[in-house]
Design a protein that fits this description.
Blueprint: H1 8-46, H2 48-70, H3 77-85
EC number: 2.1.1.282
Pathway: tRNA modification; wybutosine-tRNA(Phe) biosynthesis
Domain tRNA wybutosine-synthesizing protein: 3-37
Amino acid sequence: MGKLMVTEEYIDFLLKIANQKMEENKRRIERFYNCLQHALERETDSHPKEKINKKRDSYSHKKKRSQGKASGKYTTEENDKELENDDDLGISVTIFPEDY
């Protein structure tokens, strides 16, 4: 067996510090998750119709785009990128609500 280069007390000390940091990180992750859930719920509650309308607009835009390609319209790379960005639902979320 190998020779210890530090005392067992020092190893216990490092282990204690590491465990404390792990517990703190666990609490931070839980707090972040709870804030994220709360923000998403608030966002959903405050903009339900806006999302539905945006989805409909996105659908009609895709329909027009597919009709345009079928009729032989030319699209540039810039237009393709722009059309890809239109699939975004436009959801913006405040991660940490003001009341926290």
